[in-house]
Amino acid sequence: MQAWQVHENGEPSEVMRLAEVDPPTPGEGQVLLRVRAANINFPDALLCRGQYQVRPPLPFTPGVEICGETEDGRRVIANPALPYGGFAEYALADARALLPAPDSLDDAEAAALHIGYQTGWFGLHRRAHIEAGETLLVHAAAGGVGSAAVQLGKAAGATVIGVVGGADKAAVARELGCDVVVDRRSEDVIAAVKEATGGRGADVIYDPVGGEAYAQSAKLVAFEGRIVVVGFASGTIPSPGLNHALVKNYSILGLHWGLYATKNPKLILHCHEELTALAARGAIKPLVSERVPLSDAARAVQKVADGRSTGRIAVVMEGAA
Fold it and tell me: Which of 36, 81, 82, 171 has the least CB density, counted as fewest CB within 10 Å?
């Protein structure tokens, strides 16, 4: 089979190599899946760089989110078991963790429904307990993680403010349904959000960026608001001033979605059922901005690594839906 492999750590476009290898052999509790589509996530770039919290042995195949097909023809969503990731014709996955791919989504969309949308659902509903009528601010609103949060916020009845970098991404955020869009490259984020909220700020802030975005969040969170810390795409991990959280009465909520797989796996299934229902009625639909063949995966991963993508880029196998 064909598979992209990383033999040394570095930038994806430099260290990913397409090779002909034997299909992996399932271990105990694992299943071999034919990959139909693999969604590209920022963690794939971190894996290539050797900067992710999981460091599979070299050589490994990146690709942490797929829509695959079982031997009996079932279309499923899975997180491949590294080092046999999804940028290959076949991947391994935990048989107990397979989720049915929604009929309302094609392969690329189904592959993109898992990590970003589960993270968004857990962040907004499980951690922040967002309510209809509240204001949600989403950093990097046109990206893969942010676009999911925007759609889920709208589905929950929130007013959504999207912060983006650039006019092209601003247009995408508006198409996603953001009620207010702030371009951080041409606007003062703090002034624009305060104006949009009458000086009150946002009830819930969804932050996959960190760095300066978090500093802005601390200035923009409303009384009894919640900042959901999802990741640090900026590369800078902030050090919050807890005295500030005390005097403004707001909460800082951490979210590591992957922990639920071991701490409370039933919640992941419940979340998937909720997401499937939302997709079926058209309330959410993964934004797949680009579909590329397997041969173009390294370039696409580098594009995501460089922050030049909107929504999701999916690697789609020949013959997939």
Answer: 171
